[in-house]
């Protein structure tokens, strides 16, 4: 698949080609077949030569994008201590990595005598957009809102940060020339969908190619969709966008695959940067884990799964990772590549970097910068186009060498940061803050005497969801009573998910009756 060059305007003939069998001209659904630059609504900026740059600007100037500077990546930026990545700084680095990967892929393609394989500006726009939907308090907030949405608010499609991103781009954010959403091109909307399906995806569709990343098969044979990029209410928009880019069913577009790969690279390297600076990556237990596995590789391989699952000795975590990789991704997992990855990470990160605590000196900064730059460059250069021969792989992948190294670096973060009891204690408190806010807003909306004083934005979000449910096709449209309940629930989730960490704290305290900064609070929420 080849997108228009960044400087090439869309083909006028393609723009004029209506959807076969579609709605009447002028309708919201009158779309161009296979036209990457098609938008949902007529756009006042259509005369400009570069539709991709228009999309990039709209995302960059979005208040949802600005909000990311005050939203947790792993540790809340509102907390004291060493500076860490927030969602905005992470996003900026993902975008930089993604653009380099896209340009490298195009350079190799030209050297092979072919045209560009992806549009670097579309890749960059998708990277800027990819975390817009993350709620307060990072992945903890995502898990909490999903549980509340399903168990207490009756939303069968729950809450998912990737689906919330797509909802922001296409429904919640605003631009002058569209009734809702940023009215982005099909190419950018499709590229923003890291998991291009909704929770309602059918088993037959999954069986056709096998479960991709984000969908698991349970022991009873049923499929569990735990990652997705559209709620059922937004699915038609995603289907239209993907018709524009002609993507394979349940497959990322090439631009979406580059964005996803760049996100993995940034996550694997920059979290090491953060927590090494903060003194959280303790050398001794990490070194013990790596030496415990490397010193007994063959002995670990000989043990049965039940024994390894129960083992607490150093090295067991890495062995569980090796087995998980072989179980989930046999198309790429390789024992010798895993051994090389563990050995390299042990040598370059554990022994060389972490053995010397970060002391804030320029020498330490240079050592850390060298580590970060070296690994990111290796990963970027390893990206390759791949035939769609396995459901677990996108159209762009890391080399087997790089993939194993990324997984081992991510293991260090998950095992020695996310599993820390002190972080878990704080996260339990954050979970209660979100639960308190969701429940209190629901009670307020149920109060016949005081409902009119609920935040105007909350009422507008409910009205928007109500309108969307009413526009669903007849076979998927809920009854009026069901739609009212669903709209109320989706509006509450949209409202709470759009808060910053600090706003979530403030809302929770205000709902609990605290009067701190009372008059400064209301209009901002």
Helices and strands, in order, run as HHHHHHHHHEEHHHHHHHHEEHHHHHH
Basic shape: globular
Helix/strand-derived class? mainly alpha
Overall mean pLDDT stands at 86
Q: Main beta sheet: strand number and arrangement?
A: 2 strands, antiparallel
- Radius of gyration (CA) equals 24 Å
Discrete helix count: 23
Overview in brief:
The protein is mainly α and 525 residues long.
Describe this structure in words.
By secondary structure, the protein is an all-alpha fold. The protein has 23 helices and four strands. Strand 1 and strand 2 form a beta hairpin. Helix 11 runs antiparallel to helix 17 (362-382), helix 11 (254-277) crosses helix 18 and helix 20 (456-470) packs across helix 21. The model is unreliable at 1-33 (pLDDT under 50).
Topology, please?
Elements: H1 12-15, H2 51-60, H3 63-67, H4 87-111, H5 120-129, H6 138-151, H7 161-172, H8 186-191, H9 203-209, E1 215-217, E2 223-225, H10 235-245, H11 254-277, H12 283-294, H13 297-302, H14 305-310, H15 316-328, H16 335-354, H17 362-382, E3 384-385, E4 396-397, H18 400-418, H19 421-445, H20 456-470, H21 480-497, H22 501-511, H23 518-521
Helix pairs in contact: 2-5, 4-5, 4-11, 5-11, 6-19, 6-21, 11-17, 11-18, 12-15, 12-16, 16-18, 19-21, 19-22, 20-21
């Amino acid at each position: 698949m080849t997108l228009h060059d960044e400087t090439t305007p869309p083909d006028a003939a393609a723009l004029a080609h209506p959807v076969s069998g579609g709605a009447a001209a002028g309708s919201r659904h009158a779309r161009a077949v296979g036209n990457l630059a098609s938008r949902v609504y007529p756009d006042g900026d259509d005369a400009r030569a570069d539709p991709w740059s228009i999309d990039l600007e709209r995302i960059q100037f979005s208040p949802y994008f600005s909000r990311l500077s005050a939203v947790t990546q792993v540790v809340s930026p509102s907390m004291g201590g060493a500076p860490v990545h927030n969602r905005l700084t992470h996003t900026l680095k993902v975008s930089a990595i993604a653009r380099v990967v896209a340009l490298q892929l195009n350079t190799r393609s030209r050297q092979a005598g072919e045209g560009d394989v992806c549009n670097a500006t579309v890749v960059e726009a998708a990277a800027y957009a990819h975390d817009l939907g993350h709620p307060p308090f990072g992945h903890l907030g995502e898990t909490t809102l999903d549980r509340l949405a399903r168990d207490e608010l009756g939303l069968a499609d729950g809450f998912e940060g990737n689906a919330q991103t797509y909802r922001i781009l296409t429904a919640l954010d605003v631009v002058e020339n569209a009734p809702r959403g940023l009215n982005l091109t099909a190419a950018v909307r499709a590229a923003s969908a890291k998991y291009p399906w909704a929770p309602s995806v059918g088993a037959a569709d999954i069986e056709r190619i096998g479960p991709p990343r984000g969908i698991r098969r349970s022991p009873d044979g049923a499929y569990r969709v735990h990652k997705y990029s559209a709620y059922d209410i937004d699915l038609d928009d995603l289907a239209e966008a993907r018709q524009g880019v002609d993507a394979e069913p349940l497959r990322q577009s090439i631009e979406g695959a580059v964005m996803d790969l760049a996100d993995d690279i940034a996550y694997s390297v920059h979290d090491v940067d953060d927590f090494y600076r903060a003194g959280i990556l303790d050398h001794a237990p990490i070194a013990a884990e790596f030496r415990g596995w490397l010193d007994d590789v063959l002995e670990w391989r000989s043990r049965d799964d039940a024994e390894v699952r129960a083992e607490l000795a150093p090295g067991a975590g890495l062995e569980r990772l090796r087995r998980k990789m072989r179980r989930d991704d046999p198309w790429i997992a390789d024992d010798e590549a895993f051994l090389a990855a563990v050995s390299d990470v042990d040598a370059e990160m554990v022994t060389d970097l972490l053995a010397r605590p970060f002391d804030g000196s320029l020498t330490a900064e240079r050592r850390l910068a060298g580590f970060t730059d070296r690994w990111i460059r290796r990963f970027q250069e390893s990206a390759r186009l791949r035939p769609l021969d396995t459901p677990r792989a996108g159209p762009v992948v890391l080399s087997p060498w790089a993939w194993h190294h990324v997984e081992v670096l991510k293991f260090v973060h998950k095992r020695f940061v996310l599993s820390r009891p002190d972080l878990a204690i704080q996260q339990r408190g954050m979970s209660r803050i979100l639960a308190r806010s969701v429940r209190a807003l629901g009670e307020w909306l149920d109060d016949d005497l005081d409902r009119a004083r609920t935040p105007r934005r909350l009422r507008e979000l409910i009205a928007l969801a109500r309108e969307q449910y009413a526009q669903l096709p007849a076979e998927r449209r809920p009854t009026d009573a069901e739609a009212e309940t669903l709209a109320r629930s989706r509006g509450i989730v949209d409202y709470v998910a759009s808060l910053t960490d600090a706003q979530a704290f403030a809302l929770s305290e205000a709902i609990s009756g605290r009067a701190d900064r009372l008059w400064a609070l209301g209009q901002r929420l």
